């Protein structure tokens, strides 16, 4: 084999790896970020768990008045409609949730589904993604819940951050390995 053909082969392989690496890095970050998004949403909206791993809290059982508009997605099966057009729930937010078929054992921040739907992977720039809340109303709702319960809820946990890093490495390695074989 001539030196020139080895050099050409090596140069060709180097260019292929460099091109593949750039695309693989973007793909790995995108896939890992979506995995992390799913883990964060499951932790909060299914498990009712804070960033530190504890319970977000419990729903109030103290009497509450709730505007009719809050139930835009389903008419409550309980509560008393007042003359002012609000619903009164003597069993608090816990009862209000039960009246539309939501669980009320532990806070999971799922009522209409708007907050969960607003937590998304957001493209910050050509090569930077973040997980965030996509609108001001739901960002305020998230911040208000963190303040109300006195807990950090919407940050990624250390476990989620570590899993994110590992997923990036795994996706990247698989992509590179498949290209250079």
- DSSP helical segment count: 5
C-alpha termini separation? 21 Å
Which structural class best describes the helix and strand composition? Answer: alpha+beta
As a percent range, the share of strand residues is: 5-15%
Question: Roughly what percent helix?
Answer: 40-55%
Order of helices and strands: HEEEHHEEHH
Q: Could you list the spans in which at least 5 consecutive residues all have pLDDT below 50? A: none
Radius of gyration, taken over Cα atoms and rounded to an integer in Å: 24 Å
Strand order of the largest sheet: 1-3-2
DSSP, total strands: 5
User: What global shape is seen?
Assistant: elongated
- Integer average pLDDT: 91
Main β sheet profile:
3 strands, antiparallel
